[in-house]
Each structure stands twice: as structure tokens, then as C-alpha cells.
Amino acid sequence: MDVTLAAQSFLNGVLLGGLIALVAVGFYLVLGIARVFNFAHGHVLVLGGFATWSFRENWGLNFWIAALLGLVIMGVAGIIMERFPFRRFYGDFIPIIVVGVALLYLAEGGVVQVWGPELKHVGPVISGTTDFWGIVMTNWRWLVIAVGIGSMAGVSLFLARTRVGRAMRATAVDPDTAYLQGISSIAMARTAMFAGCALAAMGGGLMAPMYGVNIAVGMAWMIKGMMAIILGGLGSWNGCLAACFMLGMAESYCTVYINPQAGYIAMFLMLVVVILFRPWGLFGKPLRLGMPGE
Amino acid sequence: MLLEVKDLWVHYGGAEAVRGTSFEVGEGEIVALVGANGAGKTTILRTISGVKHATSGEIRFLGQMIGRKGPSEIVSMGISHCPEGRRVFMMLSVKENLQVGAHIRKDKAEIKRDMEALYESFPVLRERSKQDAMTLSGGEQQMLAIARALMSRPKLLLLDEPSLGLSPIMVQEVARIITNIHRTGVSVLLVEQNSVMALNLADRGYVLETGTVKLEGAGKELLHNEEVRKAFLGG
Prior knowledge:
heterodimer; A: 73% helix; globular; B: alpha/beta; six-stranded mixed sheet; four-stranded antiparallel sheet; 26% strand
């Protein structure tokens, strides 16, 4: 057994897990607070990636400024999505699914119109590789691992320690009683949509120099993020994070040791087994489809 | 007057839940609203705290009309609502529940001091401050719910069925807590199905029936009123 290959696959799993988490955090927050499942969330990542590509390759902006612009634009798009299509259907799960699917097709058509269907790569931002105890990875991948872990630590601290983070958790547990404390569910949903979409767009920006982006990856990342929240279960942020990294590991190891298709199959198998025995996820609580307050 | 409610009408769905109710709470009073299930007591409290809006009628707090305001403004003005069934945030720790109770406040140092003071009055909450609220017993959850409501520094505390589902000893404990809160200068509007407990504590009481006030008077007086005894206290 090649120890270096195993260790390299582990780090690749961390990389993938971090990227899945950047998508899953939006699902987790928005589903927990507003009971909204946004089917277009994977396309938010794609749009973030394409925005970064345009600002970088067409306008010639610095990559980090380009990525930041993509992040802010998609965050604002999140606020708009919360305000217009979703808000009037809060508490009504079927219309919310329909709105999500409609947004997905809108994004899909829009992206193909503007950018076309082919894969677009952003040119390398930083070059070179670093050898860490025999594990060789490009510097860009090391950086994405650090950004992924850093932003998840940031989200965890935000939820655990800040006034707004606590208010979001209180709203997810009991929106009506949170409202009595002066917390508006709408304000919390808006914050969650902004943060969730901004982080997904950041994921798209980080991927662009590495895997490139095209319209097809939207659905793939939406499914991975969705698998993470089903596997982890709602009501437990740590559970959601653990699920993201479990999925990342499954994909990474199966891809290296079996083949790329096996990575996907392994993730679905994990999901099927968990749904059979614990439909509310590994760490979650059964979901209560309540109506948020005003 | 601290709180004046005049000719309040509230609809729930199509039904009239509150039908022309009027009552008052004076500064430093404990006022009880008693009555059977469905008399509209909870709806009245939810309307005062701004979660629900009235169809018609007036609600004044410290002379200001508050009928069109939302809960965050009303909590900031000094009305705090401890809901029926305790409704503590189960997956948040005891300490976080208290912090959420102070959501509308920004004075961090003062919030900390108030929390310390509440831990002094409720030592069991200090012991369990790091535990999730779901690990507390029913009585402890009730104390947490009351403490959470006090974290916003209310002038008027709305208490909805604080004795519901508690053991007789715990009911006495809750009564003692209400008396203590009252001594610190907080006025209390107490909604109860346990009329004996509520009317014993209250300076004044109102008996509600299907959304209207049937009787009013001093707490002890109502407790000995023949009609009230027949209707609510089992003869």
C-alpha cells in the first residue's frame, strides 16, 4: 500500500469536502430558517464561477477582486431571490420546490446564452507545487484547502458565538418564539440567503482556475450539497460539516482506488443506507415543516 | 396606567377570538386574566406583544398606541412575553436561551450583569448554563422561560399559563417567583387556567368568557365570588 497516495487522497478528500461544504452551508441555513429548498443553489456556484471568469479574463481584473465581485453579486442575488420568488410561499413546501426548479432553468438558460455551454478555465492565479512530507500538490490546491477550512471555521464561529448567529439558530428551532424575542424570521432568512449564496459563489470562483466551470457542474454540486445535508441531517451544523467531509473522502478515495464513477456511486450508496435507517440523517433531528413567523 | 386595552376585537381565521375586551394593568400591579380554554386569553397576550394584530380596538402602553407595532419594537418598549408551553429553544444552551432573550439589547456589559443576577435568583440555571435546554425538567424549563423573558428588562411581563403541566410543589415555586419578580418593580399580566393560584397572587382579576370580560374585581374578591366558584373552581 502506497502511503503517499493514501495521504494525497486524504487531502484531496479535504479539498472536495470543503468545496461541498461551501455549497451545503447555504442549503443548511436556508432550509433550517426559512424551510426553503433552493434547487438553483448549484447554479449560484456556477454563476459565481462565470462572473469570476468574466471579470478576470474579459475585464482583466485581479483574480481576487474578480472572485470578490462574483461573491457579492451572487450574495445580492440571494437577497433578491429571498424577497421575490420565495418569501410569498414560506410555509408552503410544494410551491417552494416549483420556484426552485424554475430558478434553476432560468439560470441554466441564462448561463448558456451568455457564456455558452463549454468549460471555461480561469488562468493560473498562483503557480508551482509544494512538497509536504512527500505529498505533492499544486499551491492552488493547498490554498483552496485552507480557504475551505477557514471559511467553515468562520461559519461555525459565527453561528456559535455571535448575536445574529444565535438568533438564526433560535429561529431555526422555533421561529414563533424567536419572533416574540424581537427576532424577525425574514431578516434571518435574508441573511442566510446572502451568506449561503455568497459562499457558494466563492466556491465557484475557487474552482474556476482548477477544474474550470461550465453549466453542467451546477447540477452536480447541487446534488452533492443536498446529499451532505440529508446525510448530516438538519439541526446539527457539526453533523452537516462531518457529512461534507465524509462525502469528500468517499469521492476522493473511490476515484483514486477504483475509478471516477465509483466516487459518485459510493456517495449515493452512503446516502441510501443512511436514508433507510435514519431518514433524518446521521446527526439531525426529524424536520418539522413549520411556518416561519413574519 | 401602564397598559390600557380598550374594546379589543381579534379574529383568528374567520372566527372571533376576542370580542370587545377591555382591561387595564396599573404600574406595579399583578393582574390576572382567568377563564376556560378558548376564552381568548392567549390571543389577547399575542396581540399585546405584536405577534398578532387586532381587527379593532386600542392598546396603549405608557400612553402610547402600540396596536400597529411589531414585537421587536414592543419588546424594546418594555413588554416581554413568556409564552404558553414554555417554548424554550431546545437545541440552544441555557445561557444562549438567556442571550436570545436579550436580543434587542446592545449593552453587552449590562446584559452580562443581568444574567448574573438571574443566575443568583435561579441557581439551577447557573448549574446547567452550558447544557441544552432540552435536558431540563419541565419546572426548570419554566424558570428558564421566565428568566429569558426578564432578559429584555421588561416593565410589564406577560405570563401565559406558567403553571401548566407542573407538579403542585412546582406551581407553588412559580407563584413564589412571580411574587419576587413583582417585588423588583415589574408589573405582571398573568393568564391562567389555574384560577385559584392566579387570583391568590393578583391584585386584580378579570374573568373572561368567549372573548369578553364577564367579571372584574380584586383578586381575593373574585376568588370568593359565587359565580366564579361555580364556573371555574368546581363549586
